Amino acid sequence: MHADRCPPYDPPGIRRGEDVAKVSKAVGSLSAFPFGSAVQLARAIRSGQVSSVELLRAYLDRVDRLNPAINAIVVDDRERALKAARAADRALRDGRSVGPLHGVPMTVKESFNLVGQPTTWGDPQFAGNVATSDAVVVARLRAAGAVIFGKTNVPLALADFQSYNDVYGTTNNPWDLARGAGGSSGGAAAALAAGLTGLEYGSDIGGSIRNPAAYNGVYGHKPTWGIVPKRGHTLSDLLVGEGPLSVVGPLARSAEDLAVALKATAGPDLEDGYRLVLPPPPRSLQGLRVAVWLDQPDISPVDAAVVEAIEQAARALEKAGAVVDFDARPDVDVHELHETYLQLLQPTLSVNDPSYDRMVERAAALSPDDDSDYAQNLRFATARHREVARAMERRDLHRWIWRRFFQDHAVLLAPITATPPFPHDHSLPLPARTMTVNGTEVPYFAQLFWAGLAISAHLPATAVPVGRTSDGLPVGAQIIGDAYRDRTTIWVAGQLAKQIGGFTPPPGY
Q1: Is the pLDDT confidence value at 3 over 70?
Q2: What is the spatial distance between Cα 309 and Cα 414, in angstroms, rounded to a whole number?
Q3: What pLDDT does 23 receive?
Q4: How far apart are alpha carbons 311 and 412 in whole angstroms?
Q5: DSSP labels for 4-71?
Q6: Is 290 left (phi over 0), alpha (psi -120 to 50) or beta?
Q7: 176: how many CB neighbours lie within 10 A of its CB?
Q8: 188 phi, psi to nearest 5 deg
Q9: 173: buried, middle or exposed (CB in 10 Å: 19+, 13-18, 0-12)?
Q10: Helix H or strand E encompassing 349
Q11: 366-393 core/surface letters (b: 16 or more CB in 10 A; e: else)
Q12: Nearest-CA neighbor of 300 among 331, 330, 342, 332?
């Protein structure tokens, strides 16, 4: 699984003899390039400040210069993208109706099917798996006008807080190349932070959108479960891949972009018997009740630098008129919350594991007295249907407990990562890894606690940058809301940016 090498990256030329200076001049005065929002980029295209072709070529030039060191974008589809960009420009000249992302260059996570391109999930045995159709999300983004020019890196089987694999190599964090970019949407977040793409789309079952967003100082939204179709986020065009926990959602450099991308992709897929209408966001921060959960030392301790940044963000909301409560918690044992999440997560991850039979044998050989994390997760991964069904019953009870909590609080502000981005660690086995939190080694996967708060109860959660450490590394938080209150968590993220500032690019990019 360890891979230090960079992937083969020798894409065809992007200009075919055209004047590089002409392209640079076209976007040189465009303040939205390369770090502006997708909404700003779309507005510049519609107003004629820049063409879609010019903007795409400018991003591709940055990819060719900067991506080899970061290794964020690993699948190149620029020839098809250039055709789409030319078509987008013709549509504007012809006065045709255009979508909200018209002409905006963007990428998607490698795990989404992109017609004619490989979908491997970082696994060499699927290196020849070429998609014959687009994922639903990809098709909807194209319908909204986006020009998709490539795919971004992931960990093996999307199962790590770092993004590296033996197909495409290692993705480095643009804030510090010696550190990981997070996972499993690590390439997505790194590409956004480095200004290599206009927008991104990822997936989340263990923080895989929110974790890399925090590590790279960008935004990410984990939607309410089920509102964005996952068909095509699989290793086969034939599988729907809905599953009981995972979601797909956008990453961006602004909260506004999250809202636009979510609106473009949410809604029924194969079913046509209902219409999705998400409740509107609040109108003002004045009087808005915000709960804050800064730490949980007995399950997943949080580094002091992260706690400090989130507390300062909460105080900024309070100063703007919100009513902030640092003690409010759902009326449930937090250990039960976390255990229920793991009881649902582990069997979901193991359902297609080729070593499942061996896992069953190892679980049967465990001593009844073995209550280690390894033993617990192995038992969960091989649990009988009855045990999983009981966990689902507890999860449904927890959903109602959260509903009561959110009757008194609009959102919950909490960590999503226990630390700022950490140095690369490709040691095996994964369960034996540790992370340094406040000078103490803690289990690597302990921070799943923070991811699981929103996952098992099917809640929306928006990752938002909240500051930087003393040595300049980005710190993020998550804003969790009641089910289907996606517009609320994204709105609060946008309001927070007005108080403390939003995305800032890493030095040197």
Answers
A1: no
A2: 11
A3: 62
A4: 12
A5: -SPPP--PPPSSTT--HHHHHHHHHT-TTTTTS-HHHHHHHHHTTSS-HHHHHHHHHHHHHHHHHHH-
A6: beta
A7: 18
A8: -60, -50
A9: buried
A10: helix 334-350
A11: eeeeeeeeebbbbbbbbbeeeebeebee
A12: 342
The whole-model pTM stands at 0.94
**Active site members:** 109, 184, 208
What pLDDT was estimated at residue 240? 58
> Facing residues of 92 across strands?
none
Q: How far is Cα 509 from Cα 116, in angstroms, rounded to an integer?
A: 31
Q: Classify strands 289-292 and 323-325 as parallel, antiparallel or unpaired.
A: parallel
Q: Is 421 exposed, middle or buried (0-12, 13-18, 19+ CB in 10 A)?
A: buried
Question: Cα separation of 348 and 246, whole Å?
Answer: 9
d(CA 47, CA 66): 29
Give the amino acid at 308.
E
Q: Report angle CA 491, 152, 449 to the nearest 5 degrees.
A: 55
Q: Specify the 3-state DSSP secondary structure of 435.
A: strand
Tokens 């465009």 belong to: 30
Question: What is the Cα–Cα distance from 403 to 419, expressed in whole angstroms?
Answer: 29
**C-alpha distances in Å from residue 177, one per residue of 170, 174, 409, 428:** 10, 6, 39, 21
Q: Which two tokens stand for residue 478?
A: 């998550």
Read off the DSSP letter of residue 446.
G
Average of per-residue pLDDT values in the chain: 93
Q: Across-strand partners of 109?
A: 152
- Give the single-character DSSP code of 372: S
Mean pLDDT over residues 484-494, rounded? 98
Q: Before 223, cis peptide (omega within 30)?
A: no
Q: How far apart are CA 29 and CA 32, in angstroms?
A: 9
User: For 5-44, b where at least 16 C-beta lie within 10 A, e where not — what string?
Assistant: ebbebebeebeeeeeeeebeebbeebebbbbbbbbbbbbb
343: amino acid identity, one letter: Q
Peptide bond connecting 174 to the previous residue in cis, omega within 30 degrees of 0: no
Q: Using CA atoms, how far apart are residues 220 and 293, in angstroms rounded to an integer?
A: 19
Of the CA atoms within 13 Å of residue 407, those in its CB half-sphere come to 7
Residue 273 has what pLDDT? 80
Among 50-54, 160-164, 375-379, where is mean pLDDT lowest? 375-379
> Residue 289: which pLDDT band, with cuts at 50, 70 and 90?
very high
Give residue 421's pLDDT: 98
Q: Is the pLDDT of residue 254 over 60?
A: yes
Sequence-distant (6+) residues with CB within 8 A of 366 are: 375, 378, 379
DSSP 157: G
pLDDT average, residue stretch 122-134: 95
Measured between alpha carbons, how far is 265 from 232 in angstroms, rounded to an integer?
13
Query: 187, exposed or middle or buried, with CB in 10 Å at 0-12, 13-18, 19+?
Result: buried
Longest dimension (CA), the chain: 73
User: Which residue from 413, 339, 324 is spatially nearest to 371, judged by alpha carbons?
Assistant: 339
DSSP label at residue 158: G
